[in-house]
């Protein structure tokens, strides 16, 4: 079975990366690097949260609130992308990555994932990718429901609480392997250290 990291990044294909690049006003390669960094950091924070048994249980139950996130995202990403590529009007609510979010997600989801470490995560990704912290925040708001949606779908497929902890830990570890970009590994290593000290 594919890792959570692979499953999440698989939902951000070349067309989505092109759209992200347009919305963040950056090159697609920069967008791809930022997506890898942001997804890895989201997973790292969730993995660290599950070190606390009560937090692991809370996350496991919270996944039920995100059952439709991935389906909604898959359906809403397609239409605005086709519209933009055809030169038509931008997505609803004036465009931007936030216009693609399911209604139930937003600031509260990032707070749930990062807690008081949120500014550290945003500044770390910004340093690793040359994006501004505001751009990073837009990206995290877009990717957080993708991560939660993948986890929710995994739960629907039979993943139990122990499997959630195991899969998050494995994906967090994968993000620190030598084949990952050294800059990303450095940022995540520092992030994990802050988690331990928090």
Number of strands: 0
Cα-based radius of gyration, to the nearest Å: 16 Å
Uncertain segments: 79-95, 99-104, 194-198
Q: Which structural category do the helix and sheet elements fall into?
A: mainly alpha
What string gives the helices and strands in order?
Answer: HHHHHHHHHH
Beta-strand percentage?
A: under 5%
How is this fold's topology laid out?
Blueprint: H1 4-10, H2 14-24, H3 28-49, H4 53-62, H5 69-85, H6 107-114, H7 118-129, H8 133-156, H9 161-174, H10 182-197
Helix pairs in contact: 1-3, 2-3, 3-7, 3-8, 3-9, 3-10, 5-8, 6-8, 7-8, 7-10
Describe this structure in words.
The structure is a single chain. The chain is mainly α. The chain has one domain. It is 71% helix and 0% strand. The protein is built from 10 helices and no strands. The termini are far apart.
Summary keywords:
10 helices, mainly alpha
């Amino acid at each position: 079975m594919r890792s959570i990291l692979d499953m999440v990044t698989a939902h951000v294909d070349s067309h989505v990366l092109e759209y992200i690049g347009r919305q963040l006003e950056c090159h697609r390669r920069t967008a791809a690097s930022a997506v890898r960094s942001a997804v890895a950091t989201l997973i790292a924070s969730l993995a660290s949260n599950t070190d606390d048994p009560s937090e692991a249980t809370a996350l496991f139950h919270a996944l039920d609130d995100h059952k439709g996130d991935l389906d909604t995202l898959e359906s809403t990403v397609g239409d605005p992308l086709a519209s933009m590529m055809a030169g038509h009007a931008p997505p609803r609510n004036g465009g931007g990555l936030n216009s693609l979010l399911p209604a139930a997600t937003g600031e509260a989801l990032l707070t749930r994932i990062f807690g008081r470490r949120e500014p550290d995560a945003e500044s770390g990704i910004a340093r690793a990718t040359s994006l501004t912290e505001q751009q990073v925040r837009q990206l995290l708001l877009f990717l957080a429901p993708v991560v939660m949606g993948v986890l929710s779908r995994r739960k629907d497929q039979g993943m139990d609480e122990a499997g959630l902890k195991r899969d998050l830990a494995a994906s967090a570890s994968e993000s620190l392997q030598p084949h990952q970009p050294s800059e990303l590994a450095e940022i995540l290593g520092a992030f994990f250290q802050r988690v331990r000290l928090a």
